[in-house]
Structure prediction request, 338 residues.
Amino acid sequence: MNFSANPYERSSAEAANEWNHVYAQHKGSLYRDRHWLWAIFPEIFPLPPHYKGDLDTRTFVCHCGKVTAISSALVNEVNMHGLNLRACCCPVCEYKIVYQSTYVYTPGRPTRGEEVPFPPRTGNFWVLDIGCGTGSLAFPLLEKNSQVRLLSLDYSEEAIKVLKSRDRYSEEMIVGKICDITSLPNLSTICAQLATQFTPSPVFYYATMVFVLSALKDSNAVKTAISNVLSVLTNNGVLLIYDYAEGDYRERKFSVREQSSHNCLSMNQKNYYLGATYLRGEGTRATFFYLEALKELCSELGVVHEALVRTKEEYNRKTRERWVKKYLLIKVRKPSHG
Prediction:
């Protein structure tokens, strides 16, 4: 493949090839399964047995159109193992997300790294998993939520190969496909094909983009990707976005490294200045977004119900170093007339 002279101007196909190299080298070890996503996406991830009120989101955005404060959405529930748990429930349509993992929770017993069978499916609640990688969102979700099925998309062929090679992969619950999310015909074709595989035809109530937008070429690609995803959601469907935010410690590292090369380009389109884009060593992109700028862009495409920066401070006891991680969380709804 012939690459563009300016690495920041590489096409989606060229960027996919960079990710292919990354996934071919690291296989399934590149990203750990993200069991912590319940803290930001309670709309699809059940609250775990060890939940103690430590959510990093303020709202529960239901696919029926109702937005509820987390404190008002919490209910008591008994799960399949007889555990008394907290769960999020919409007060209007009574959509409820209950922790249904086949793992039997024991207080004080570590669970990290354990893989358990998926619980039997109890529904056909479809989630669109954009930039799925090797299943770091899909597998934890299927472990804990028996209602969901997933269409998992990534533009890296190698990522989809690794996803499909995982032991618990089954197209009864998760369908992995190669897709350039900036191409609406590509996305629409895949959704149409899925409708021939399942009865009833899949309806997408939620979509997720976790560290997806930061890998795209520019603000035009970001806007196109968001628009395309919203277009295939059901009316009032919700897109859940999580990505790097301005001020993250990694941005400062990139800035110092590239200060003299002047190849740190901003994402610009018309009056948009979404953030600064850097290249990792293997050629993949990382953009650190301004919250208000990305929120404004999303507001042009749908209804933004929540937009915040999640800050995590970490400390290395050995080196006595502290660093701050910053991420943005945005929940945007497809208008009922859209």
